[in-house]
Amino acid sequence: MSTINHLFENNRKWAEKIKAEQPSFFAELSRQQNPEYLWIGCSDSRVPANELLGMAPGEVFVHRNIANQVIHTDLNCLSVIHFAVEILKVKHIIICGHYGCGGIGAALDGKQHGLIDHWLRHIKDIYRFHQEKLDAVTNMQEKSNLLCELNVIEQVAHICDASMIQKAWQDGQELSVHGLVYKLHDGVLKDLKVSVSGLERTY
């Protein structure tokens, strides 16, 4: 039977390194979390939120799912957003997709994938909303990249329409929603310029 003993060893070395650099780090971290950012990203193992933002544990509240979706029947995601906005009072919500996303690719390939097809239905709906624009792109990588961006933009809209976000803005809470895409080939984030900071959208 395979074991995960190497993970415990990795964890021990990581904790010792942190304590050597900042002796009080874990004591302070254990007392509270006070992040300014909620990150909603893809479950893809190549897109680690804290690391690519250059932030330490405790600085980013994170939710991840296949293809970084915000679906109004997903109580898990909605509960994370509610906790982040109502309790933690985050100031920024970041929706981050990434080029080369397997969920986007599966939504495009026309094949049957089993249970995940129900989840991918939402991405296929986005394709349908933008079919003329997407069908005009013949290169499959470019088509996938465009759908990745359109998906992020749609999820920004979904968050902005959520009741807890609407209430936060009505109450004057400082809160912005941003749409980004992560480029796996160079590790750089792309701003899709769809940030929203109040009830009136600018895009």
Question: How would you characterize this protein structure?
Answer:
The protein is of the alpha/beta class and 203 residues long. 48% of the residues lie in helices and 15% in strands. It contains nine helices and five strands; from the N terminus they run H-H-E-H-E-H-E-H-H-H-H-H-E-E. It has helices at residues 5-21, 25-31, 49-53, 75-87, 102-108, 116-129, 131-135, 140-161, 163-170; strands at residues 37-42, 60-65, 92-98, 176-183, 188-191. Strands 2-1-3-4-5 form a five-stranded mixed sheet. The protein is globular. It starts with a helix and ends in a 12-residue tail after the last strand. 27% of the residues are buried.
Order of helices and strands: HHEHEHEHHHHHEE
Count of helical regions: 9
> How much helicity do the residues have?
40-55%
Radius of gyration: 19 Å
Query: What is the first-to-last residue Cα distance?
Result: 54 Å
Shape: globular
Give the class from helix and strand content and strand pairing: alpha/beta
For the secondary structure, the number of strands is 5
